[in-house]
Amino acid sequence: MVGIAPTEAQDYFPNGGENMIIAIASGKGGTGKTTVAANLAVSLKDKMPVALLDCDVEEPNAHLFLMPEFTERESVTLPVPSIDSDKCTHCGICTRICAYHALADLGKKILVFEELCHGCGGCSLLCPAGAITEIHKEIGLVERGTAKGIEFVQGTLSIGSVLAPPVIKKVKSRIKSGPAVIIDSPPGTSCPMINAVSGADYCVLVTEPTPFGLSDLQLAVGVVRELGISFGVVINRAGMGDGEVEKYLQEQNIPLLMKIPFDRRYAACCARGGLLVEEFPELRQSFNNLWKAIERRVEA
Predict the structure, then answer these.
(1) Is the pTM of this model over 0.90?
(2) Dihedrals φ, ψ of 127, to 5°?
């Protein structure tokens, strides 16, 4: 497996990285990333313990395919400062040290912009007057349960909250069993995606054979290369576009792990929340082969 520092592994995964962790990501939304994650999990569940983590916390939708029964729910909170105006001397330390500009001194009152606060606690730690305490603001929810024999965990960012990484980190910390852990990552290449794929042994990038798909794939490739994570590509809706994606993969020596043909029956199945491996048995072996290909590359 691709190694990460033990402390980082324990931070994300309580068992210290004993699982094989596969992140499913994409450079943009709508490529079929969740379809691949859900169908890969279902194709494996009769062969080994499988856990699926939906880290697309701004819009989790893996539950629509798997219909899990949740047995645990836990709020995700962030410590934000609360100012005691009677104690505040307006020394200016808190506003100066806040890297996120979450505090502003209006002369008679310190304003707190909770949406900007990252919960570092620096202001309350350094306040010489003891005027700052912390209150816990709910920013999301983590739910854990089972679905079709699969351990299932999902996070949901609260409406109005913008800090997805703490919720993603909480989702990743809830996994208990293995050996196969599949992470459905947020789309794109920003902080949420980076937090979701960090610590994974392998990353599967899902794309489609179109100019937009190629452009966003190239961005995603740049991110996982920067993170030092081994990766390969799944082309969804193969046959509907041009051959530029495959040409790019050959030029960059990037492994093409699987192609899912463009088929209106597949699209209809996914649109109603169905699973390809259940409605089209011929695809089950394809997803099993995808896992075997990942295993070989992780163990190489």
Answers:
(1) no
(2) -65, 115
